[in-house]
Amino acid sequence: MADTKQLYQEVILDHNRKPRNWGVLPDATHRAEGHNPLCGDHLTLALRLRDEAVDAIHFQGESCAICKASASMMTVAVRGKSREDTERLVQEFRDLATGKLEPAGPHHLGRLTVFAGVRDLPTRVKCAILPWHTLHAALNDEASTTTEAEADPMHAPMGNA
Amino acid sequence: MSVNPSRAELQRAPAGGLDVERIRADFPILKLRVNGKPLVYLDNAASSQMPQPVLDRWIRYQTTQHSNIHRAVHYLSETATAEYEGARRKLAAFINAKEEREVIFTTGTTDAINLVAHGYGRKFVAAGDEIVLTTLEHHSNIVPWQMVAEEKGARIRVVPVNDRGELILEEYLKLLGPRTRIVGVGHVSNALGTINPVREMIAAAHERGIPVLVDGAQAAPHMQLDMQVLDCDFYAFSGHKMFGPTGIGVLYGKAAWLEKMQPYKGGGDMILSVTFEKTVYNVIPGKFEAGTPPIAAAITLGAAADYITGIGIERIHAHETDLLDYATDQVNRLPGVRIIGTAEKKAAVLSFVVDGVHPHDVGTLLNEEGVAVRTGHHCAQPVMQRFGIPATSRASFAFYNTHAEVDVLVAGIRKVQKVLR
User: Fold this and answer.
1) Which entry of B210, B217, B270, B379 is annotated as an active-site residue?
2) Total-model pTM
3) ipTM exceeding cut-off 0.90 for this assembly
4) Helices (H) and strands (E) in chain A, counts
5) Strands (E), B43-127
6) How far is B390 from chain A (nearest CA, A)?
7) A124 contact residues in B (CB cutoff 8 A)
8) Distance from CA of residue B72 to its chain's centroid?
9) Do B376 and A38 touch (CB under 8 A)?
10) Between B35, B364, B376, which is nearest A124 by CB?
11) Which residues of chain B lie closer than 8 angstroms to A66, CB-CB?
12) pLDDT by residue (tens digit) across B376-409?
């Protein structure tokens, strides 16, 4: 069985209690909404791209602790990164959460590996991935996204937006 | 071989009550440990567990009695046919049907409702007609009717609920009109546990000549099912929610309706004769049981009905009511926890929300304590919309649950609040 104690680690609980980069970003260049209609997780993501790098990124929403902490840590991780590096991180996080990437292996995820535990809880994978899915949509000028149906991370490869 | 070994044991049980520990000994899965803790299984409304005598029945059928039914003249085919029809007889007695042929084996409640939506709805519902459902319905008693309504140009009317999660009967009566072709109502709400006043609702519909389908999936494991008292036209329920296997369920229908309805699926066993010019359909129940049915599952469901009868539905009801009252009281004492669904008459379901905590986090953290609850919208999104919430956590009880397990649940909720605040 999965030891979920490893999922609700202190760093995740801390980001859930005090989410970083929470709020609106008036001069955003890219925005997207992420929604999981099945559990009600919902977040809006806004970012400002300058010279093809993430200059600022904010989020807001209603969601479970895993989704909120994932979003908060994501904003910290991608701030200052190039679009290319950000997209690579999106892919790596997705692979980590779905068990395709080992936390010990080569990657650029850093502390984000605390989310590795969701791989043993298939029903929670979508919670962790939703913010990243939304970030991918924002970078590719999609107004909204979901983790359901064709976009289900448990089944579908990430499409070219 | 007796399938209700608990009967003798129960006679030695404390007066008036269930000997829960003896009953628990019948359920091998309850000995499981999850995350290093004893399993506390409180997801019975989704699916219940099977006791050993019921499991044994499946094995005995497959090892000594199996063949296809209604076919060959050899020993095994005749044995399997007799056992399968014997199960139909048991189920007919279990629900007090007037005739055995009024019991149709389906793959479950969803299949049973789809059978009525197709067999009755497609034949008797026309453009401008109305189908009356309630806010409390499970998606499986909504979507099949929406499909019929869309196809025929009919309209769905919905009975509202009050803040306690009870149907508003005056509103129901107003919805019954000259265009109403059928009423679909759950006996017990899967999301909230509300026991609906189906008897009154059926009587009111019948005064206007309207047939009623009752979704009994959540009632079958908890209360006496008596088709003669209810007088419903259709009643649907599932095996796996009443301590039987998945893949089997029952549609009860009054013979007069079943005979008028069109078949649902075409195939073997549902015909009397076939030529390419004309096919003559079988009489009921065969007309609605095309193809080889889940024979082992049907026979095992018969054993599950025996098991329930052996314990006694009155005792089950008394124990579960006690358990629900205790759980309700304990959860009500927790600040920041709100019970959704506070109907006066409830079956053993406790739906709740924890302030500031998403039900998915509740479910995952309770799982850490070995507690299995369901979190989500419970396939009843209109109920969630009515109460303005995306989801709830739901503890649902069976007769094998104990007060000590309620304590583990309550301690688990406290821990959730501590961790996520």
Assistant:
1) B379
2) 0.91
3) no
4) 4, 4
5) 103-106
6) 5
7) 360, 364
8) 34
9) yes
10) B364
11) 360-361, 364
12) 889 999 999 999 998 999 999 999 999 999 999 9
Give the span between the Cα atoms of A59 and A25, in whole angstroms: 8
Q: Does B391 touch chain A (CB under 8 A)?
A: yes
Q: Report the alpha-carbon distance of residue B349 to residue B189 in Å, rounded.
A: 9
CA distance B27 to B4: 13
Task: Report, in angstroms and rounded to the nearest whole number, the Rg of chain A calculated over CA atoms.
Answer: 14
Query: Closest approach of chain B CAs to the CA of A37, in angstroms?
Result: 8
Distance CA B319, CA B16 (A): 10
DSSP character string of B245-275: -TT-EEEEE-HHHHHHSPPSS-STTSEEEE-
Strand partners, B274: B279
Segment B52-84, tens digit of pLDDT: 999 999 999 999 999 999 888 999 999 999 999
In degrees, rounded to 5, the angle at the alpha carbon of residue B259 between the alpha carbons of residues B258 and B265 is 65
Q: How far is B358 from chain A (nearest CA, A)?
A: 5
CA nearest to A139, candidates A95, A96, A84, A92: A84
Chain A residues with CB-CB distance to B32 below 8 A: none
Task: Give the contacts of A152 (CB within 8 A, at least 6 positions apart).
Answer: A126
Q: Confirm whether B232 is a catalytic residue.
A: no
Could you report the per-residue pLDDT of A86-98, keeping only the tens digit for each? Answer: 999 999 999 999 9
Place of tokens 């549902």: B270
For residues B123-150, one letter each, b for 16 or more C-beta atoms within 10 angstroms of the residue's C-beta and e for the rest, the string is ebbeeebbbbbbbbbbbbbbbbbeebbe
Q: pLDDT value at position A155?
A: 54
- Considering only alpha carbons, which residue of chain B is nearest residue A37? B390
Asked if A124 and B357 come within 8 Å (Cβ–Cβ), the reply is no
Using only the alpha carbons of chain B, give its radius of gyration. 22
